[in-house]
Design brief:
Blueprint (H helix, E strand, L loop, with lengths): L25 H8 L4 H6 L5 E10 L4 H7 L11 E10 L2 E11 H5 L10 H5 L5 E3 L3 E5 L3 H7 L7 E10 L2 E9 L11
Antiparallel strand pairs: 1-2, 2-3, 3-7, 4-6, 5-6, 6-7
């Protein structure tokens, strides 16, 4: 298992509401729009599950990402955000790449020492987090994206993202299903 990933990876793709896409089958659509914990769902699909932390630190976020997490009249300040990128593995196969934009205040209080813990374990066990509607993407992964995640694929990848409201803060979680993910089981 390789672990020398490059941080930050980012997700070079355009996002839109799910009804703007023709999702190829009901299995994939179900994975993309399931409002439950992705971590818990993945764990039911394998005998061995783990997370690789690619990185988490204060980092620049894109203006488009900032638009999703900013509050009224907030200015883009990198010191107010941490970027967290991980890979979720099932049975030693990389299944999901996730990129989260987390307010620094959450990292200092509720998310201290997150390390290799799945973010979903905290979010879905705390009723203060409210998930907003999904956006999805269908991307042809660039050579750089594939190199950073040590992938080699010709297939388009699907992803989803949503914002979670927490008191007066917003956090974005984006997830891209990698080629061996069970989300594609009806497509292989």
């Amino acid at each position: 298992m390789k672990t020398s990933y490059i941080f930050p990876v980012g997700i070079p793709s355009l996002w839109a509401e799910p009804d703007k896409f023709v999702i190829p089958n009901s299995c994939l659509k179900n994975w993309l729009l399931d409002t439950g914990s992705l971590t818990e769902r993945l764990q039911t699909q394998c005998t061995s599950f783990h997370l690789t932390l690619i990185g988490q630190q204060q980092a620049e976020i894109t203006p488009e990402e900032f638009q999703r997490v900013c509050t009224f009249q907030q200015q883009l300040n990198p010191k107010e955000w941490q970027v967290r990128e991980v890979i979720l593995w099932g049975d030693n196969q990389p299944w999901v790449f996730a990129r989260s934009i987390i307010p620094q205040k959450l990292c200092e209080n509720d998310f201290i020492n997150l390390n290799n813990k799945p973010l979903g374990q905290l979010i879905f066990n705390d009723k203060r987090f409210e998930r907003m509607p999904f956006e999805v993407t269908n991307m042809s992964p660039s050579n750089a994206f594939q190199a950073q995640l040590q992938l080699s694929t010709e297939m388009d990848l699907w992803g989803r993202r949503s914002v979670f409201n927490f008191e007066n803060l917003k956090m974005s979680v984006s997830e891209v299903f990698l080629p061996n993910s069970p989300a594609y089981q009806e497509m292989q």
